[in-house]
Design goal:
The chain has 583 residues and is α/β, with parallel strands linked by helices. It has 16 helices and 26 strands. 31% of the residues lie in helices and 23% in strands.
Length: 583
């Protein structure tokens, strides 16, 4: 798969000339007015009313560009589901209009759905170097070898149909993050992606506030901005502060083994840990598949500098002294199959947690994950380890802007209209209130949800039509919709259990041969199981089986006969599966 470099394209505006003849000028003005009745449509496929699954489409006439294509991980109410991606039915129906997919940065909630989308329509993808390198790895896993990946740099501009897209450097918790200034036929749309303002980044440049100010002075029609940390006053901590905290951890645990869990995609954090390991004469072992893949990809393109003879295989760390070892691991959110979670439960044969271990969780707790994370922390303590996490030390810096930084952004851009994005509904409401407190009219602020279309002609903004949108569930190699019968059945079984009634009948004599009852996930005594069996026996003895049409009708009779009994006995409605065998 080749990653192509995209040249910057300068958009030249043609001078508008007016004729002196009044009649002709009026006709011309009316013609332009009638011709320009099209409006820009912003369609939200994900990332509003939720954290993750970010995906937005801008549509004007026969042109569509898509911003981001992310996923979210399933909640506890989605048994067996691997990941959740946006429903792209609308894009499938309009794929001839799509001019490209633009990715703001390489986090899973912005790139994770791409392999599944590109299987359906292979359109050009644009992103920075690290972003595309991470995407390329995901596409290889899905055996997609013909993707059109175009590498861009912050500061460059590309033309996609009627849209001109400028990429602007921002700070985030991953290298290569960009905001987008999109020039459309009705005005400039500014999309921040995920960002914060870091005046002292560990590496790379600061956010390009000068260019953002220039764009604001020229006029911004619509701002769509990250709302994740809008509930927090002030500004996000600089990544350089985290380095100081991590240094203290190394100093204060000189004789102990260090296990540091962090987001695999936070390459700057990996570099800080690597540098400190070299300084304190420790070897580094990566633990977790995503950690190994991202470290390898980042080193390959020069985003991560790994000195010689520092890395050791995690399987060889038993030969090293504790004070000579740092393990960098996945599992900051208590994910069930992550390396740290398996260490904490004693199920990871490569690392055994002991009393001389200090475990550092260098990440913030994503809302909804607290229970799983604290379970991991409790298990680590049970095994004798010391645990350091965000509430104890500043060992994580968020990649999302807080209220102080959001005010700076709004004041620089001075948008006519505003739509808060990248947040749950409460975040969007609070961000809308913040914009209003800075002088923006309430009528110029809209809060959108998935499936909403917002329309603007440059003068007004309004809610437009609803369109098919929502979630698709990826389960192994299959993809299913939000109204999945499979998922409903799984939830039903997980909550109420399952009963299988196996009935054998003799075809010639139409006599009942035998009945077997199998229950799973239901608390039933042996006496209750025997009674269920007798209910089926009695039903079929009373029925003239010759008059029963087929096995399906017989199964329905058995199901009805057991349903009331089971609810009366267990106060549950288990799934009942009758199996009729003709012998």
């Amino acid at each position: 798969m080749n990653i192509e470099k995209t040249k910057s394209v300068k958009v030249k505006k043609k001078p508008v000339t007016q004729k002196k003849a009044g009649g002709n000028a009026k006709k011309s003005a009316n013609a332009v007015k009638n011709k320009d009745k099209k409006s820009l449509k912003i369609r939200f496929l994900g990332g509003v009313g939720e954290i993750g699954k970010n995906m937005t489409a801008l549509e004007y006439g026969k042109d569509i560009i898509v911003i981001d294509a992310g996923l979210i991980f399933p909640g506890g109410n989605m048994p067996g589901v691997d990941i959740v991606i946006p429903d792209v039915t609308y894009l499938q129906e309009n794929k001839s209009k799509i001019r490209g997919i633009i990715i703001t940065h390489g986090h899973e909630d912005h790139i994770g759905a791409l392999p599944y989308i590109l299987k359906d329509f292979n359109v050009p993808v644009y992103g920075t170097k690290l972003t595309l390198t991470l995407i390329e790895g995901k596409l290889k896993e899905q055996k997609i070898n013909d993707a059109k990946l175009n590498c861009i740099k912050a500061g460059s501009t590309i033309k996609l149909g009627c849209f001109s897209v400028e990429f602007i450097n921002v700070n985030h918790s991953i290298a290569g993050a960009v905001a987008l200034s999109v020039t459309t036929p009705v005005g400039v749309v500014f999309h921040t992606g995920d960002f914060k303002i870091d005046y002292t980044p560990v590496r790379g440049e600061t956010m390009d506030l000068a260019r953002i100010s220039e764009i604001g002075k020229k006029g911004v029609l619509l701002l769509m901005a990250d709302s994740t940390n809008v509930e927090l006053e002030g500004a996000a901590v600089s990544e350089s502060v985290v380095k100081d905290a991590l240094r203290r951890v190394f100093e204060e645990n000189a004789s102990r083994r260090l296990i540091i869990a962090t987001f695999a995609s936070n390459v700057d954090r990996l570099q800080q840990i690597m540098d400190l390991a070299v300084q304190f004469k420790r070897k580094v072992a990566f633990s977790g598949r995503s950690m190994l893949n991202i470290a390898d990809a980042a080193e390959r393109i020069g985003e991560l500098n790994i000195p010689e003879n520092v890395i050791v295989d995690v399987e060889r760390i038993g030969k090293l002294k504790d004070e000579e070892t740092v393990i960098i691991s996945t599992g900051t959110q208590g994910e069930p199959m992550s390396a740290l979670t398996r260490m904490a439960s004693g199920e990871y044969n490569k690392v055994t947690i002991g009393k001389n271990d200090t475990v550092v969780i260098s990440a913030s707790f994503i809302p909804g994950n607290e229970k799983m994370i604290y379970s991991v922390i409790n298990n680590l303590y049970r095994l004798g380890a010391e645990v350091i996490y965000e509430s104890l030390e500043p060992i994580h810096a968020s990649g999302h802007a807080q209220r102080g930084e959001l005010r700076i952004l709004h004041s620089l851009l001075k948008p006519k209209f505003f739509i808060p994005v990248h947040g749950e509904y409460r975040h969007l409401k609070k961000h809308a209130a913040l914009a209003q407190s800075m002088g923006m009219k309430e009528s110029n602020i809209l809060i959108a949800e998935i499936g909403d279309t917002v329309e603007t002609d440059g003068r007004r903004i309004k809610m437009g039509e609803k369109f098919p949108a929502g979630s698709k569930f990826v389960d192994g190699v299959g993809i299913d919709g939000a109204d999945s019968f499979v998922l409903r059945d799984r939830k039903h079984i997980s909550e109420d259990g399952l009963m299988i009634a196996v009935v054998a009948v003799e075809e010639l004599s139409a006599k009942l041969s035998s009945v077997e009852i199998v229950s799973k996930g239901i608390v039933m005594s042996d006496a209750a199981v025997s009674e269920a069996k007798n209910i089926v026996y009695n039903l079929l003895k009373q029925k003239d089986l010759k008059k029963v049409k087929d096995e399906e009708e017989l199964g329905a009779l058995i199901k009805r006969s057991l349903k009331n009994f089971l609810f009366k006995t267990t106060k549950k409605n288990p799934m009942i599966i009758p199996i009729v065998m003709v012998v």
